[in-house]
## 1
Amino acid sequence: MRIRFYFLFFTLLGGSVLFAQNKELLYDFYEIPQSLMVNPGVKTSEKWHVGIPVISGLSFQGATSGVTVNDLFANDGIDFTTKVQERVLDAMTRKDDFSTTNQIEGITVGFRGKNRPDDYYSFGMYGETDVIVYWPRDLALLAFEGNGGDNIGRSFDLGDLNLRGEMINVFHFGVNRKMSESLTVGARAKLYSSIFQFQSIKNSGSFVTTEGQDNIYMTSIAADMQFQTAGVRGFYDILEEDTGTTKKDIKSLFAERVLFGGNLGLGFDAGFSYQLTPQTTVTGSVLDVGFIYNNKDVWNYTLNGSTSTEGILVYLPEDIDDLDNDLWQELVDDIDAALPHGENQKSYISFRPVKAYGSIRYDFGEAGGNPFDNCGCGVNDQGGGSNRDYYPNSVGGQLFMMKRPRGVQAALTGFYQRRFGRVLALKTTYTIDKYSFSNIGLGLNLQAGPVNFYILGDNLLGYSNIADSHYASLQFGINIISWNDN
Amino acid sequence: MKRSFYLLLCITAVLLLSQSCTEPQDFSQFDDLRITPTLATGLFYMESDEATINDSGSLSTFYIQTVNFDAFNEQYVAEHLIEGTITYEIVNTTSKQLRITLEFLDEGGNTLDAEQFDVQADPSGTNIWEVAYGPGGKSLDILANTSSLRITVTNLGDTTSVSAQSEPKIKFRSAAEFLFRLK
């Protein structure tokens, strides 16, 4: 119990040292090659880029819209059960969630087409883990308070159980094309290799104890619940066997799944950048429109049915000759039969969490030389001073939306970006979403010759006491970029 | 000068992002968590019409039944039960005075405890008894060791009278409300 509890908090809350699905700092930060991953239609300047394997792009996130680690575990002298009651049970709703996402870029390469310098191709591989657990409010209340006392007559919603998680490896190939001086579009195809996936997202039902028709209480349950897993059982079996080769077996299975040995899926990203005026640009992108077909190592658990009971019931004279003394066991068996719970291995499709970005940016400031004018790629050779890189300052707004099991999750960002030649670019953001109204982020991109280093941190105010933060993210990476033939 | 400014900016930003603080957390508090739900359930219901009582003739005990009842002695329940109350409700609209006896039996069929309820003939209203278990009440061991219940209903009146009620019945209801310590 204790281990499970710690696991929950360290993975879902404690993970808050790390990133969010919303990469508002990276979005349209076109000095960073990884901005192609959040908008394949971002304007590109480089001739080619190569990410340093494994450390070209690391991003981590942890978020909680409800209680924080500090709310519960601060050394404040308040009784722990009181804190759980007041800060979790009384305060959190079924819309609150704990989530964590992380991405590790294994390989990333980009290059400009030799014959088509307006095209920038990029490909690579990254791993992603994404877990979201909605607070199962009614189930928690049932566990903590029970169905008796003041809860007689209260219907507990079994649909409050809602969670989803997966670990995947993504192979991708994208094309970014400058269509005209003002329009750049891009698309990216993705092949998903699933390591594991689980979800319990379509549950419904209720559990209620009311005044009985005959007896004092009647307890009723109606449930239509399922927990789908794919790829989990394989790992579980290895751990369960606990042989001397457990570690090796886990690694072997993991490697197999990473390289198309598990369930596979397809998806795509698309995006654009459109320059409305020399200083105003709008952008948009949609990411991870795709699915995974789970047909290997599938193990689903179901609970479906309805019943009600008032206890052992005897009616005379009808039951006068019923000398069966197993009435209790019969009652248990009846309930069991009315609520069939089972396992199956039915294949299922899991959809990727679709994300969409939109932004408007206004560039301004004292005109200066284009820092990318030696790119050698032809794409920035624009006359008339219309190139956006010409302006050192940008200000604008971004909108982020993401499909979650319980609807669309949105975030609104205002940003300011400052470029200091090619060497340095800074971006600061203010974001509001369900996790925080005080999310100030800061991103830095440093170009030292061909070496590009970036670091982006969100919700910096939360870093003063990260255990009390509802949301934190950190992304960083190192690339080699070339703007010319050297 | 300009280069120094950039450098300073970089260092500041990197430090800002990399230096995170956290107040000391005491995760051992989890050991103090108390999860004590109150669970309520109907237990046993028995009803009989007046004709059945009259038909039993000279047999004063017109219903006796022993039923397995392992709800309380399930290991988990027995180990986590803190206290509780069993409520009995009897409504008698027949013309007889009745006695209902509920015996708690262990696996060997020995009586661990017994509750006896005498109800007057109609009109006697709704009769309610609440029996507490745990601190201040009866021993929880009675429940933890109960393997079956024996219900005996005895007619303390005659076998010929007829109640003035349209559907005279004896109704015996029972329910439990127990406090458990899950953690």
Note: Chain B touches chain A through 61 residues (CB under 8 Å).
## 2
Amino acid sequence: MEMKKSRKILLTVIGIIVAVYTLFPFYLVVMNTFKSANSIVSSPVGFEGISVSQLMTNLSSVVNNSNFNFWYAFGTSVIITVVSLIVLALFGGMAAWVICRNKTKWSTAIYMVFIASMIIPFQVVMLPLISTFRDVGNFVGISLLQSIPGIVFAYCGFGGAMTVFILTGFIKGIPYELEEAASIDGCSPEGTFFRIIFPLLTPVITTVTILNGMWIWNDYLLPSLMLGQNGKVKTLPVAVQAFVGSYVKQWDLILTAALLAIIPMVIIFLIAQKQIMNGMVEGAIK
Amino acid sequence: MSENTTNRKMLSLVLLAAGAVGLVVALYLDFSGSGNAMRGPLLLIGAIAFLIGLYLFPTVEHHRSIINFIFLFPLLFTFAVTVIIPLLLGIFYSFTDWNGIKFSGFIGLTNYTTMFKDPAFIWSVLLTFLFVIFNMVLVNLVGFSLALLCTSKLKGVNFFRASYFLPNLIGGIVLGYIWQFVFNNVLVQVTAAVSGHQNSILANTKTAFIAIIVVYVWQYAGYIMLIYVTGLTTVPKDVLEASQIDGANAWTTLMKIKIPMIASTITICTFLTLTSAFKQFDVNMALTNGTGSVADFMGSYLTNGTQMLALNIYNTAISKNSYALGQAKAVLFFIILACVSIIQVRISNKKEVEM
């Protein structure tokens, strides 16, 4: 199956052209954070006007900007993402195990509702969601809007269906004899789950965590509605949106903010490239 | 041993009782409308104490059921509060004059008739369908071609794969602003040098729509490519070799072997692009925010030339404060997506039967 040399070269050239095209916007972002506002406008593509000191100026003016509040937004995003992922993996695993190992009418019905709910678009629930959260918050005296626990709660609800769906498929493949053996040895059901089943779920929980993590980290609509555009608590996408809104056309600041928002994702991608790409595919195929 | 059991039973009963009392007191404080700050924490502590009491309850025959309940409860509860209740409320509100906080009465189908009389909304719906069709074709074509490229025996295939996928990692809002910069500051200079015009393509409704498609394909094709790559690697090597020996050229191999063998992957990718293009919001908002003039559509002048359905719903409710109308539009959106999903399930089931 040897390709002709000329074709090989042609394909490689096409591949490189497409790669240049996909990476070009990233190149622009990185390049222009080294420039002052004036040089960005006069030469957005070239190397003219590049200096490290300008990068430092841009970075410090964005990071120290009280409207953007980068570290605060970054920390909020990290906390929300990490806590939501842990909660989803734990509760999702627990629920999936119960659904999978109990062949009753109830568990089948619950599973069906979870599956069916995956077609519900966020737009149809977002408006009543806000009012429900506001009402419940007022009613019980715990603020669910403009609070990190409220957002984690919402992500647990929205991510639950897909998490259970993927985990159930995996748990079905774990031999039931394992659990029987454990229970004969005197292991309680909860012990069986936490000591035997949960550790076995590691690969599929990695998949679920990647899928949910990409979604939660990049999500804009849910936090913007729940936290509000000008609220105190902001995630990174909400902060970028608010920042751009107040600094129209100040590309030196906007692109630096964009760079700061991109970097964490790119670093994680470079570290766990294989897992992320495999996880994204597995999630789609199931 | 028996003392242990008695202790456990005592503890369980105490916790159950304390939890129940806590819950009742907290709920009483809620319903009585007192602003007591303790009621929230009390409710939480009560619920947790009740669950722990339930867990410690000394019973052998019901222990498994109790564990099932405790394990299911957290996810089901959050799911009910965030998805099921808002969905039912949302459908209900779409028949009322709800203003986001409360409603004063039923207005029947008025919201639905209003939205179908609104040219701006019809425009958004048609535009969304156009966008979906364009994207379904383009993303799949580009994704599939890139997948063929990435499964061929070239050097640097891994680099290509990673760089094509990279745009997918970044959220639509940030992407939208980066591309806004590309179109408004970089591309303008190119067109100015070529034709002398200084117009950004985002300023014109038609070209701005094309720009949204370009950005979307740029972002999504890499993801679809990955799924096609997985599909293509499942095509058995010996079949490909056999066709080679029989003298099939690359084109025949592609049309007669590869494409038929990955039919199920094609179905998956088609519906994936379909549903995600329907829901497109972030890029639309960041790139044009739906602006763009349309001189004459159904007899009126429109200013939402590039506004797609999801953004239209958002703007109707949040910017224009017409919550009930926005909700009615969202219900229609839901119905469209549900139909699409049901068709998908039908098609994939049929395929599986045939195979």
Note: Chain A has a mean pLDDT of 88.
